[in-house]
């Protein structure tokens, strides 16, 4: 049966509620991606204390249990009630770490020193990009890190159709440069079909 949707605006929770409710989730990796596993392993060997991490737009929160088991303090948020329900149902003992919250209004109870990005930035329309980057910067102090997966295209002009919404490498660098410096970028080889060939693992340090 073909999915039927009445909501067409990804800025609103109803858009995502419908898709989760109907099982239309082509962005769901349903596993912990390798680059994140590698980063966590390196972090454990080189850092003395675990980070306080936020996962915005967490969806199914597939990475939550892995990060918690690694000793990280993690909060996963989503403004879609259906997404929060899906996450809580699958993360078991870590369900208390999942909250229904709007990223732009969320205030952490303790200061963050890491944000993990996974298909949140590319889920929102291009008009929201500057606001997302600015909010990342507001939430992270100098020296903190933004890590994760970014959907980028080498072309300077990309289609505005989505989600997922592609961003050009040049535009993304321009948005980030006032607040962050990129300290690692690698093209991803194990992407889902919807992201294939355009997904980059990146680590950014807050200036």
Provide the descriptors you would attach to this structure in a database record.
single chain; alpha/beta; 8-stranded mixed beta sheet; 6 helices; S-adenosyl-L-methionine; transferase; phosphoprotein; TPMT
Low-confidence stretches: none
Strand content bin:
15-25%
Sheet of most strands? 8 strands, mixed
The best one-word shape is globular
- Kindly state the mean pLDDT as a whole number? 93
Helices and strands, in order, run as HHEHEHEEHEEHEE
The secondary structure category is alpha/beta
CATH-level-2 architecture: 3-Layer(aba) Sandwich
Report the radius of gyration as a whole number of Å.
16 Å
CATH level-1 class: Alpha Beta
The tally of strands reads 8
How many individual helices? 6
Terminal Cα span = 49 Å
Do you know the CATH topology? Rossmann fold
Pfam family, one: TPMT
InterPro entries: SAM-dependent_MTases_sf (IPR029063), TPMT (IPR008854)
Protein name: SAM-dependent methyltransferase
Organism: Undibacterium macrobrachii
Explained architecture:
This protein is an alpha/beta fold and 207 residues long. The chain has one domain: 3-Layer(aba) Sandwich (Rossmann fold), CATH 3.40.50. Helix content is 28%, strand content 22%. The protein is built from six helices and eight strands. Strands 1, 2, 3, 4, 5, 6, 7 and 8 form an eight-stranded mixed beta sheet that branches. α3 links the parallel β1 and β2. It is globular.
